[in-house]
């Protein structure tokens, strides 16, 4: 069976997902990168700005204005590390957690609508396979 290349198919799907998510993010007053940061911090595994940048594939210097904006809006907390005052420790504030939950719920609802026509077994297999492939791709790729 002839098919498009993976890059073509994933690119098309990626563009559709971004177009679907943009109005949701705009309604909540957060950028795509802001949401990426909130999502990474919601996982609790990232504590420093350098570790965050590496985990999401962002340049450290370009990440600073995003963190500044989120901090000014009281969505994240950024404090000096008592062990090394040059290092900033990051965490979500309660308003940040609430915003992340609200945005994620709307995005998941839109994803459910997108995948709704697929049989349940196909949907589960797609999500499981996509998660496995995503784990194999370093954050900085792409």
TrEMBL record:
By its UniProt entry, which InterPro entries does this protein fall under? HTH_MarR-typ, MarR/SlyA-like, WH-like_DNA-bd_sf, WH_DNA-bd_sf
Which intervals hold domain HTH marR-type?
3-135
Give the superkingdom in one word: Bacteria
One Pfam family matching this protein? MarR_2
The record's PROSITE patterns line, in alphabetical order, gives: HTH_MARR_2
**Protein name, as recorded:** MarR family winged helix-turn-helix transcriptional regulator
Organism field: Actinoplanes oblitus
Specify the taxonomic lineage: Bacteria, Bacillati, Actinomycetota, Actinomycetes, Micromonosporales
